């Protein structure tokens, strides 16, 4: 009865296309990152949840990394790309240190980041990058990037799954948007808040985001980079410690520069 | 055409305070990215203790508002009393569910102060919100809806605290709304805030970014 | 979408203007089609959308406005008329074959001596605004109106602004348009000749020449 059999599938050119499966080289791993610059310090934070869709892959995956004594990087988006990008940038920083006998400035790292990201213009690292640290004249600096290298120096920036939740709050609290100083009072200047206030805002931002965004939670890692000679009492003083909050100082990576970097970690809700 | 929920843009937020509630909306009416009007009030009073907001598809904002005005007037005439916030919420919910398979593209937000009764001499301030087919949520803190809902959640979660007095509640809801809609292309273009207390309603028009 | 219309309110008047093209797709079949309809002694609308739907719907609106007038001896005021028209479109939207008609409704409220302008689209979306545009006009002339419109405009300034808008359309849009224009004030609906150098002066000099056919003019009440 082959006479009445349907023609084989390969005979139909329109069916052949359906058999092809596109390989998708990207994924989205949730989480959120955030950085705020102060007058003589910068705070760079990220949660530690890594997820794919509704599944949590791990409750502890780092998104924030120390690059130099005065620069910290945070990545968000596709974790594999983020991790690999950090690895490559660390390698470039090492080469720079061997060639020049000094660590790269945050300004130069920002430009390097752009070149490296744009170098992959047609197969980008799917990573939103934020750099935080201390610039050459000792002021807090935050640089934020899109996945192909557009960048800008700002006083604060949130990125990732909870960007839409956190950024309006930061606009209000850091940039004082929609706020007017009382008549005769000092005008508001962004980037001049004390460390204790900034820490409070960062922790509030993440607890808020954890409350409403399923891709954010588990833990918070918060790096504080301080200008050389700045007091550390407002961070390591025991009365500043929030419950379950741990502070640890990270040793110097280079020599000479006496900027200090601290890692603050605390738990976030796990549901 | 894109999603009907994002065709005209607009957002509403309601918050609970100490013996008071507040409800606020932006004033934009757009046709996708084009702004058409900056006087489109999405919040309506049922009486001086009960307000509701209807963010979503603008044609349905009118239709549902007309429908609810009719139902509330009928309730008033039959019952010879004002509708309570809770009953009104269920009225809105059933009106939405009636159109289960061809819904109104609206996510209503209700805010009201229930009147003391013999059974309940100290009623709590009431807010509620629904999805497009009438599934009710009655939060203790705040309710948000519209194209800036995610931004409103973030701002409200960061700014709101329990037991705010009317003046502080006004400041909180205003800052929440303004900073959220400033990050939303489809909301903004001015705002209106109502703060409802037992003895009066204070309505203020907010000036905001017009871009 | 190929249509283009404008509405401008002023101190004691409202102007409606509409393009005069009729056709299908890229073919223009007419360039002198009137797409403004008087709906009553102080009410008119400029319409556009699916050809056929537009005529059907405007006829339907016009006869219902007239029916109301006959039954109640008073024409519907602009706010009430806008609500009725909007509702017809909103109900039609969820029917088997919705009317695809966008319109600008202009009217003069003789009880308050205030002009009214409503922007209404085929969904039944209604905006009560001082100046408005539909179609191509939305893309190129809304900003012109944002810049030049002001509260309590006199008629001459209204025409001047309309000319700015039409100029914008003619210089920025590839399609060529002719424009048809009416003005509604306390005295009723008048035709405006945009080719004249001062159409407002012409109107006050010879108002009888600017008469617009209003559906079944009011029958004088028996003495």
From TrEMBL, chain A:
<keyword id="KW-0378">Hydrolase</keyword>
<dbReference type="GO" id="GO:0051603">
    <property type="term" value="P:proteolysis involved in protein catabolic process"/>
</dbReference>
<keyword id="KW-0963">Cytoplasm</keyword>
<comment type="subunit">
    <text>Component of the proteasome complex.</text>
</comment>
<dbReference type="GO" id="GO:0016787">
    <property type="term" value="F:hydrolase activity"/>
</dbReference>
<dbReference type="GO" id="GO:0019774">
    <property type="term" value="C:proteasome core complex, beta-subunit complex"/>
</dbReference>
<dbReference type="InterPro" id="IPR001353">
    <property type="entry name" value="Proteasome_sua/b"/>
</dbReference>
<protein>
    <recommendedName>
        <fullName>Proteasome subunit beta</fullName>
    </recommendedName>
</protein>
<keyword id="KW-0647">Proteasome</keyword>
<dbReference type="InterPro" id="IPR023333">
    <property type="entry name" value="Proteasome_suB-type"/>
</dbReference>
<dbReference type="GO" id="GO:0005737">
    <property type="term" value="C:cytoplasm"/>
</dbReference>
<comment type="function">
    <text>Component of the proteasome, a multicatalytic proteinase complex which is characterized by its ability to cleave peptides with Arg, Phe, Tyr, Leu, and Glu adjacent to the leaving group at neutral or slightly basic pH. The proteasome has an ATP-dependent proteolytic activity.</text>
</comment>
<comment type="similarity">
    <text>Belongs to the peptidase T1B family.</text>
</comment>
<keyword id="KW-0539">Nucleus</keyword>
<dbReference type="InterPro" id="IPR029055">
    <property type="entry name" value="Ntn_hydrolases_N"/>
</dbReference>
Automatic annotation (TrEMBL), chain B:
<dbReference type="InterPro" id="IPR033811">
    <property type="entry name" value="Proteasome_beta_3"/>
</dbReference>
<comment type="subunit">
    <text>Component of the proteasome complex.</text>
</comment>
<dbReference type="InterPro" id="IPR001353">
    <property type="entry name" value="Proteasome_sua/b"/>
</dbReference>
<dbReference type="GO" id="GO:0016787">
    <property type="term" value="F:hydrolase activity"/>
</dbReference>
<dbReference type="Pfam" id="PF00227">
    <property type="entry name" value="Proteasome"/>
</dbReference>
<comment type="subunit">
    <text>The 26S proteasome consists of a 20S proteasome core and two 19S regulatory subunits. The 20S proteasome core is composed of 28 subunits that are arranged in four stacked rings, resulting in a barrel-shaped structure. The two end rings are each formed by seven alpha subunits, and the two central rings are each formed by seven beta subunits. The catalytic chamber with the active sites is on the inside of the barrel.</text>
</comment>
<dbReference type="GO" id="GO:0019774">
    <property type="term" value="C:proteasome core complex, beta-subunit complex"/>
</dbReference>
<keyword id="KW-0539">Nucleus</keyword>
<keyword id="KW-0378">Hydrolase</keyword>
<dbReference type="InterPro" id="IPR029055">
    <property type="entry name" value="Ntn_hydrolases_N"/>
</dbReference>
<keyword id="KW-0963">Cytoplasm</keyword>
<protein>
    <recommendedName>
        <fullName>Proteasome subunit beta</fullName>
    </recommendedName>
</protein>
<comment type="similarity">
    <text>Belongs to the peptidase T1B family.</text>
</comment>
<dbReference type="GO" id="GO:0043161">
    <property type="term" value="P:proteasome-mediated ubiquitin-dependent protein catabolic process"/>
</dbReference>
<dbReference type="InterPro" id="IPR023333">
    <property type="entry name" value="Proteasome_suB-type"/>
</dbReference>
UniProtKB/TrEMBL annotation, chain C:
<dbReference type="InterPro" id="IPR016050">
    <property type="entry name" value="Proteasome_bsu_CS"/>
</dbReference>
<dbReference type="GO" id="GO:0010498">
    <property type="term" value="P:proteasomal protein catabolic process"/>
</dbReference>
<comment type="similarity">
    <text>Belongs to the peptidase T1B family.</text>
</comment>
<dbReference type="InterPro" id="IPR035206">
    <property type="entry name" value="Proteasome_beta2"/>
</dbReference>
<keyword id="KW-0539">Nucleus</keyword>
<comment type="subunit">
    <text>Component of the proteasome complex.</text>
</comment>
<dbReference type="InterPro" id="IPR023333">
    <property type="entry name" value="Proteasome_suB-type"/>
</dbReference>
<comment type="subunit">
    <text>The 26S proteasome consists of a 20S proteasome core and two 19S regulatory subunits. The 20S proteasome core is composed of 28 subunits that are arranged in four stacked rings, resulting in a barrel-shaped structure. The two end rings are each formed by seven alpha subunits, and the two central rings are each formed by seven beta subunits. The catalytic chamber with the active sites is on the inside of the barrel.</text>
</comment>
<dbReference type="GO" id="GO:0019774">
    <property type="term" value="C:proteasome core complex, beta-subunit complex"/>
</dbReference>
<dbReference type="InterPro" id="IPR029055">
    <property type="entry name" value="Ntn_hydrolases_N"/>
</dbReference>
<comment type="function">
    <text>Component of the proteasome, a multicatalytic proteinase complex which is characterized by its ability to cleave peptides with Arg, Phe, Tyr, Leu, and Glu adjacent to the leaving group at neutral or slightly basic pH. The proteasome has an ATP-dependent proteolytic activity.</text>
</comment>
<dbReference type="GO" id="GO:0005634">
    <property type="term" value="C:nucleus"/>
</dbReference>
<keyword id="KW-0963">Cytoplasm</keyword>
<dbReference type="InterPro" id="IPR001353">
    <property type="entry name" value="Proteasome_sua/b"/>
</dbReference>
<dbReference type="Pfam" id="PF00227">
    <property type="entry name" value="Proteasome"/>
</dbReference>
């Amino acid at each position: 009865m082959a006479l009445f059999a349907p023609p084989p599938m390969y005979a139909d050119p329109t069916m052949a296309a359906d058999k092809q499966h596109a390989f998708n080289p990207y994924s989205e791993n949730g989480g959120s990152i955030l950085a705020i610059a102060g007058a003589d310090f910068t705070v760079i934070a990220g949660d530690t949840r890594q997820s794919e869709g509704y599944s949590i892959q791990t409750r502890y995956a780092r998104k924030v990394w120390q690059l130099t004594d005065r620069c910290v990087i945070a990545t968000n988006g596709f974790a594999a790309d983020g991790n690999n990008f950090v690895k490559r940038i660390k390698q470039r920083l090492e080469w720079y240190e061997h060639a020049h006998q000094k660590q790269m400035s945050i300004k130069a790292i920002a430009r390097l980041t752009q070149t490296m990201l744009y170098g992959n213009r047609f197969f980008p690292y799917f990573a939103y990058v934020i750099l935080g640290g201390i610039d050459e004249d000792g002021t807090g600096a935050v640089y934020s990037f899109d996945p192909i290298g557009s960048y800008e120096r700002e006083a604060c920036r949130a990125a990732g799954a909870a960007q839409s939740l956190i950024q309006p709050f930061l606009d209000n609290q850091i940039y004082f948007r929609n706020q007017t100083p009382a008549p005769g009072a000092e005008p508001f200047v962004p980037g001049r808040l004390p460390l204790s206030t900034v820490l409070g805002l960062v922790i509030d931002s993440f607890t808020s985001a954890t409350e409403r965004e399923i891709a954010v939670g588990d833990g918070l890692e918060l790096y504080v980079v301080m200008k050389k000679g700045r007091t550390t009492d407002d961070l390591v003083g025991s009365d500043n410690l929030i419950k379950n909050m741990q502070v640890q100082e990270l040793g110097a990576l280079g020599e000479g520069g006496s900027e200090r970097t601290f890692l603050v970690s605390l738990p976030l809700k796990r549901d | 055409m894109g999603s009907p929920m994002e065709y005209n843009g607009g957002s509403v937020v309601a918050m609970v305070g100490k013996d008071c509630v507040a409800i606020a909306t932006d004033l934009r009416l757009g046709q996708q990215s084009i702004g058409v009007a900056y006087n489109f009030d999405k919040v309506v009073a049922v009486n001086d203790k009960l307000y509701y907001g209807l963010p979503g598809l603008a044609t349905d904002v009118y239709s549902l508002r007309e429908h609810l005005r009719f139902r509330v007037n009928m309730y008033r005439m039959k019952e010879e009393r004002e509708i309570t916030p809770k009953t009104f919420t269920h009225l809105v919910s059933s009106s939405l569910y009636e159109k289960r398979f061809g819904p109104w593209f609206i996510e209503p937000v209700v805010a009201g102060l229930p009147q003391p009764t013999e059974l309940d001499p100290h009623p709590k301030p009431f807010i509620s919100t629904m999805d497009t087919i009438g599934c009710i949520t009655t939060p203790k803190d705040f309710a948000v809806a519209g194209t800036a809902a995610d931004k409103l959640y973030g701002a409200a979660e960061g700014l709101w605290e329990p037991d705010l007095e009317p003046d502080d509640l006004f400041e909180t809801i205003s800052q929440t709304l303004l900073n959220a809609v400033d990050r939303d292309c489809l909301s903004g273009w001015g705002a209106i805030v109502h703060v409802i207390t037992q003895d009066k309603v204070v309505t203020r028009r907010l000036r905001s970014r017009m871009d | 979408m190929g249509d283009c219309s404008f509405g401008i309110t002023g101190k004691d008047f409202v102007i409606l203007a509409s393009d005069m093209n009729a056709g299908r797709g890229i073919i223009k079949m007419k360039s002198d089609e009137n797409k403004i309809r008087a709906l009553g002694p102080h009410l008119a609308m400029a319409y556009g959308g699916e050809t056929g739907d537009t005529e059907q719907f405007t006829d339907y609106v016009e006869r219902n406005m007239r029916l109301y007038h006959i039954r109640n001896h008073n024409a519907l005021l602009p706010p009430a008329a806008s609500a009725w028209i909007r509702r017809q479109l909103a109900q039609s939207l969820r029917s088997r074959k919705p009317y695809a008609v966008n319109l600008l409704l202009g009217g003069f409220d003789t009880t308050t001596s205030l002009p009214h302008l409503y922007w209404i689209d085929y969904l039944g979306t209604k905006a009560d605004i001082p100046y408005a545009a539909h179609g191509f006009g939305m893309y190129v002339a809304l900003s012109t109106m944002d810049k030049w419109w002001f509260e309590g405009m006199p008629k001459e300034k209204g025409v001047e602004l309309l000319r700015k808008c039409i100029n914008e359309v003619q210089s920025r849009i590839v399609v060529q348009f002719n424009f048809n224009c009416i003005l509604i004030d306390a005295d009723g609906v008048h035709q405006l000749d945009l080719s004249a150098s001062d159409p407002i002066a012409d109107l006050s000099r010879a108002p009888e020449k600017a008469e617009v056919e209003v559906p079944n003019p009011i029958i004088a009440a028996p003495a």
